[in-house]
Amino acid sequence: MAHNTSTFGKIVTLFTDVAAGIAVFGVLVVVLLQVSSRLLGVPVSWTEEATRYLFVWMIFLGLSAGFRTVETARVTVFIGAVPGLFRRLAVPIYVVSSVLFFILMGWTGITLVKQQLMMNETAATLAIPMWIIGIIMPVSAVLAVLAIIESLRTRRDLIALPEDAFPAIRTEDADVITNAGKPS
Length: 184
Hints:
Elements: H1 7-39, H2 47-68, H3 76-81, H4 84-88, H5 90-118, H6 131-134, H7 136-154, H8 156-159, H9 174-178
């Protein structure tokens, strides 16, 4: 299904997908440099730390990108097992719980960055301020909320669980369903 992309959507995509891609590329380059320098017998001391911090950025940005494309972890089996009323509440529950999580993550990230600034903390071998690493947490929280808004606008059908996606599951049939086709 083609999804219409507004200017807002393009901006969210730029900040989530492109930034995550740059972080992935950075990890690749730094790891290749690390391996190459060790093979040549002149290991570079800062590569392990740089890889770790780029990986942290990659994970947080990838989290935001996943919410934009609705490729996040959801437990649809439970949604399929509940009555129809609760299935219709799947989208609001998904949105509210996700936004609350990201508000908490953003608040925690801001607290972390304030602490890093107050203590003037720096990375051991890179000699860069640690708040540069920590800032990804609140930034990613904001990007994830924006990504949720974008996914609601363009991919709501992927968030919602269609009524016919799962047959009504009875608890007594659970063993039969999970072991279908397997010898007892």
